[in-house]
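<instruction>
Derive structure tokens from the sequence

<record> Sequence and structure tokens follow
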Amino acid sequence: MADVLFYHLTESTLEETLPGLLERSADRGWRAVVQTGTEERRDALDQHLWTFRDDSFLAHGTDREAYPGDQPILLTTGDANPNGARIRFLVDGASPPDLGGYERAVFLFDGHDSAQVEAARGQWKLMKDAGHAVTYWQQTPDRRWERKA
């Protein structure tokens, strides 16, 4: 079973949070898949990851390009895992595939978007009922992450 983490974004945006999480995954030697709810969001994140910081970028590609299996980080709207990722990030209410082949899954949801909050609650119940180890992380006012019971 996968460890499933829920990150409740209240002080930061997805664009501020996701690159750091992807960097930590890459530092562990993990390939990652980022599943978005729409092609537009996938394409916007694709552009953002090349320029999110002046002194860095994250090597990645999208599922619309050739050789998705070669990408250390793959942005997709689909369920496949062509790059053999060990961690899957789900954003903007994307519905997860079977998570059995992953070590970790991370749901990131905007705490100011009621539809995303409700979707995350539904996914929490589904993941818990499926036997995954689930944890909930909420941002503090200083943008730190605090694990909640």
Remarks:
- The CA atoms of residues 62 and 75 lie 5 Å apart.
- Residues 3-148 form a domain with the Rossmann fold fold (CATH 3.40.50.10110).
